[in-house]
Amino acid sequence: MPLKIDVIKDKILSDNYFILRNVTYDLTRNDGEVVRHKREVYDRGNGATIMLYNRDKKTVVLTRQFRVATWVNGNEDGMLIEACAGLLDADEPEACARKEAIEETGFQVGAVEKLFELYMSPGGVTELIHFFMAEYDDSHRTWAGGGVEDEDIDVLEMPFAEALEKVASGEIRDGKTVILLQQLQLRGVMA
Length: 191
Description:
Blueprint: E1 4-15, E2 19-28, E3 34-43, E4 47-54, E5 59-66, H1 68-72, E6 79-82, E7 84-87, H2 93-105, E8 112-119, E9 128-135, E10 154-159, H3 160-169, H4 175-186
Parallel strand pairs: 4-9
Antiparallel strand pairs: 1-2, 2-3, 4-5, 4-7, 5-6, 5-10, 8-9
């Protein structure tokens, strides 16, 4: 049975880069008790991420870039190793994943496989991320990558085994990247 939710207040606190809302609502529990919640919800739009892998070379292509939120939360240099990703804006998820792969890594991939869609931080962020993977080879490299406009992205091609070691050591700690690397391992793609 769906929960009953009555919105009391939905106020925009910030509409700067993304939208931050203050939402007050009454939630009627299954036992009939009504509980009032006050929450802030961050709406940054939905996104797509893609893991590029080369089965023959047993490598993956990742990126490294500065992420201010990690820096604010104690990541000393703010740099994060990630699978390429971006906001959908007006694009369909697969088109976004392909666009981000070209912009961030320089690889224009062929066949793309959609894995699933996940909420990464549902306690306060609305974003739904669409997960993809695609095989690449050296002929798919159309330019150096590195991002566009205000981005400054390092492109990292590394052995799959090294990427897994970096997860274990804590050097790779981006959730979407860990999930995608685990998918390659669970599916036996790089075996």
